[in-house]
Specification:
273 residues, alpha/beta, Rossmann fold, 4-stranded antiparallel sheet, 11 helices, 34% helix, 22% strand, binds adenosine-5'-triphosphate, binds magnesium ion
């Protein structure tokens, strides 16, 4: 790649992702307006809710990702980023709002049924089985499949060659960045239609972070839209088509990655100036 890490993907470089994404697209070239008004591929719409009978953590919060795009959620610790992801994955009961995938209302589906419907989710914590080998982790990822998944596993080993090398090692023996690759690989084993990642670069060095972002862009290029939470806000917004800043469970700022990177308020409050 030339220039800055990802140049200015910020919603302009249509070559990086597969703009047509999965399936068929409503808009054709030259009908950008149609694309923008089209229903997002995955949307948590106006979500309000919390954990059990506890207080609301999310307040009328909306996050979404379009076909062929990368959407990034950033915000301070405790803002509700993981809660929003869990809500979209069906791990908490919403008091208001809905979740729609590919035009279908899935608000009442269990997490497992959402996986069957094409959602892949890598949670922020406990996202691998440390005592199982790398390959066993990938096999676990394929739990909903009854077909031959060896081709998918080969693709994942192509994407993450280090996993092939370490496939017989317990995943708990891997480095932080390698574990995150296992977690992403596990989620890809279901051949998801959309991938949700909660802090995929947590605790890794800047170099490993760059590598992981490159792999994530590669996944997006294959046509899988990606909705991810990132604490490396600046770098994540550089590769984001769409960005959401959440504060106290609410949408504080929304825009293209580029718009948010250029917004003085966002810069001052969330990007360190
Ligand atoms: N399982 C839970 N039960 C009850 N409250 C929770 C639970 N998980 C998170 N919370 C609360 O929800 C709020 C938002 O937490 P959340 O984990 O969504 O924030 P976050 O934006 O992901 O933060 P971080 O950047 O630290 O990952 C916090 O006040 C937290 O204490
Ligand atoms: Mg979190």
């Amino acid at each position: 790649m030339s220039g800055g890490a990802y140049d200015d993907r910020g919603n302009r470089d249509r070559s990086i992702a597969n703009p047509d994404g999965v399936g068929t697209l409503v808009a054709r070239p030259g009908t950008k307006g149609a694309r923008q008004t089209a229903e997002a591929f995955l949307i948590g719409d106006s979500m309000t809710g919390g954990y059990g009978a506890g207080p609301d953590i999310l307040h009328d919060c909306t996050v979404a990702v379009n076909r062929g795009e990368i959407a990034v959620i950033v915000g301070p610790n405790g803002a509700g980023k993981s809660t929003a992801m869990k809500a979209i994955f069906g791990m908490l009961d919403l008091r208001q709002g809905s979740v729609r995938l590919d035009g279908q209302d899935i608000t009442d589906l269990s997490p497992q049924d959402r996986v069957v419907n094409g959602m892949g989710f890598v949670p922020q914590t406990s996202n691998i089985f440390t005592s199982l080998t790398v390959e066993e982790n990938l096999e676990m990822g394929a739990f909903i499949r009854r077909d031959d998944f060896s081709g998918t596993m080969a693709q994942i080993y192509d994407l993450f060659p280090i996993l092939k090398e370490k496939r017989n090692q317990p995943a708990g023996e891997l480095s932080g960045g390698q574990r995150q690759q296992v977690a992403v690989g596990r989620a890809l084993m279901t051949e998801p239609k959309v991938l949700m990642l909660d802090e995929p670069t947590a605790g890794v060095s800047p170099i490993v972070m760059d590598e992981l972002f490159d792999r994530i862009i590669e996944v997006a290029r294959t046509g899988i839209p990606i909705l991810m939470v990132e604490q490396n806000a600046r770098q994540a917004l550089e590769i984001a088509d769409k960005g959401y800043v959440l504060v106290q469970g609410r949408n504080a700022y929304t825009g293209t990655g580029k718009e948010l990177l250029e917004d003085p308020e966002v810069r001052r409050s969330f990007l360190g100036g």
